[in-house]
Amino acid sequence: MDFDHIFVLGIVLIAFAIPSAVSAYSDGQRPKTALIMALLGAGAIIFVVRENPGVYALDTVDDVIVTVVGDLINN
Which keywords are on file for this protein (predicted)? Predict the structure, then answer.
């Protein structure tokens, strides 16, 4: 798994944490699962950015996502 895949996995985990947190709050529960997913996602993104400084920026996020989705479709 290369760094682009880990970066996109982090973004997906954070994106899935948001509805999980909203669901937990609406049920009156603590958002434990949402917190774990958000921390894992943020950790993955921080790991990738620290390993490849200067490669990932806000301008390149959409290109990285399209590249990873293309890789997953073609394999």
Answer: Membrane, Transmembrane, Transmembrane helix
Q: What is the total count of domains within the chain? A: 1
Q: What is the CA radius of gyration of the chain?
A: 14
Indicate the burial class of 24 (C-beta count within 10 angstroms; 0-12, 13-18, 19 or more): middle
**Cβ distance 75 to 12 under 8 Å?**
no
Domain that holds residue 15: 3-74
pTM of the prediction? 0.88
pLDDT tens per residue, range 30-62: 999 999 999 999 999 999 999 988 888 889 999
